TrEMBL record:
Pfam family, one: Amidase
SUPFAM superfamilies for the chain: Amidase signature (AS) enzymes (SSF75304)
Reported function: Hydrolyzes indole-3-acetamide (IAM) into indole-3-acetic acid (IAA). Allows the formation of correctly charged Gln-tRNA(Gln) through the transamidation of misacylated Glu-tRNA(Gln) in organisms which lack glutaminyl-tRNA synthetase. The reaction takes place in the presence of glutamine and ATP through an activated gamma-phospho-Glu-tRNA(Gln).
Species for this entry: Azorhizobium oxalatiphilum
Assembly description: Heterotrimer of A, B and C subunits.
GO molecular function: ATP binding; glutaminyl-tRNA synthase (glutamine-hydrolyzing) activity
Keyword ATP-binding: yes
Name of the protein in question: Glutamyl-tRNA(Gln) amidotransferase subunit A
Entry-linked HAMAP family: GatA
Domain Amidase: 25-471
Primary gene name: gatA
GO cellular component term of the entry, any: glutamyl-tRNA(Gln) amidotransferase complex
Amino acid sequence: MTALNQLTLTEAREGLAKREFTAVELTESYVSAMGEARTLNAYVVETAEKALAMAAKSDERIQSGEAGKLEGLPIGVKDMFCTEGVRTTAGSNILGEFVPPYESTVTSQLWRDGAVMLGKLNNDEFAMGSSNETSALGPVVSPWRREGDSAPLVPGGSSGGSAAAVAAYLCAGATGTDTGGSIRQPAAFTGTVGIKPTYGRCSRFGIIAYASSLDQAGPFARTVNDAAVLLRSMAGYDVKDSTSVNRAVPDYEDAVGASVKGKKIGIPREYRLEGLDPEIAGMWEEGAQWLRDAGAEVVDISLPHTKYALPAYYIVAPAEASSNLARYDGVRYGVRVPGRDVVEMYENTRAAGFGPEVRRRIMIGTYVLSAGYYDAYYVKAQKVRTLIKRDFDDVFALGVDAVLAPATPSPAFGIGEKSHADPVEMYLQDIFTVTVNLAGLPGISVPAGFSGKNLPLGLQLIGRPFEEETLFSLAQVIEDAAGRFPVEDLWWKA
């Protein structure tokens, strides 16, 4: 019999509905698994007592016929989401032991629908990173390993804890945030499904800000259907977020398995980078063939300003981060390092509280916003951003329903393998994902193949604004053709 924590979220939901097991039993299975997997460092706060109390309440509602859409399903929460009464750090020392007095809208909607909170998941500091190595609470270790090699691998970032926990059966699903690929890249690295919805589809209230015009919440799950179930609860209008869109939320699960016959899928020629990993290129072509076999039409398209996306992103995002992170000064909350006067206290607190990558991005952002460089860098990057969005608009105007591309330029790499002395090497991990955030579009990463070293590889589907349903139907075709990618070697339990 499959262990309860290895059921998909959909299977667990069905088992609870049929009274095959209780929510408490399901939660106990996850709590036990979490205790055996601490070497992965996926969780930074475990809330076992709270989870079991929530599960007991879920069992009461199931018994009385008042079950919510996620009743009794154990979920992990990225540490960028404020959780009332539970420590929230954003992976940074500067927040210290900060305990929010309020709940983020996204997590409150999960609890409203009956989900059970297992704890807070590790992430790159303030979501700035592509490997989960910048967290002040230590790197997350991927549950995957290269064939014949025990070297620890990164799970991707910044939502590395969420991706690793879902892949390692430490939660039925998890929340993530995506500013430049921080859901889709780790999903690809860990053989899980991750969707970044359209900007404005999920409320940002209560999510610790990195770059406000780019940040968007989304779910991690083990299957496309599981991701659809989670997104339905996470999405929705919120009067507390001025960027939230007042638009009805469909039942995304209805789109899973829908016919894709007649859908037009674009293959952007600009994504065929010189020196692209042959394994990635081969998987991309195979994915296109799977969609053709399902009745979709695959066409070549051009997104001419793609080559400017990465430099534009690494101007816009640090500029917004420089502004957002100015609030961490040691005065109102978090860590305070004393000084001889208030200015020195600010300097000491921020120097001690922020890690090297966060300091680097704050300094870049401050520089491009400064009087002498604002027009030369920031204004120009915003103009490029408009052109990138226009590229997608033009393609969609030609009848293209979605764009198919790789999610990452490589499989997962080892912890410490990328040089932190050269940050550009790490920034290149985002090359296929940042355009989606700059244009505010939805994108989903779905497992589609394996590397020669038996590591998962992911394909990305990019859709029209607020047409996540199309992405779920197309992603299901890929999942059906490629199969699921479960971690089978539970080496961390040895």
